[in-house]
Amino acid sequence: MNIVILGAGRTGSYVASVLSEEEHNVILIDKDPKALEKASRENDVATIHATAPSWKLFEDLIDQKPNLFFCSHGR
Fold first, then answer.
1. Which of 20, 24, 37, 40 has the greatest count of CB atoms below 10 A from its CB?
2. pTM over 0.90
3. pLDDT, tens digit, for every residue of 28-47?
């Protein structure tokens, strides 16, 4: 399953970790490059540095054919 997670805080990073362990394709998006670096170092996830979701970002993600978008709010 292709999954996009908005937010690399505690919840988003945890969900990304669990889903990547289950061998799902995970893309993690956040404005904090350090959080993304940590997540990609600890898990098999792709990362995108973005300050805010935009239509351009969503249009680019459509090419990945995501089955699920997950939004994690807060740290």
1. 20
2. no
3. 999 999 999 999 999 999 99
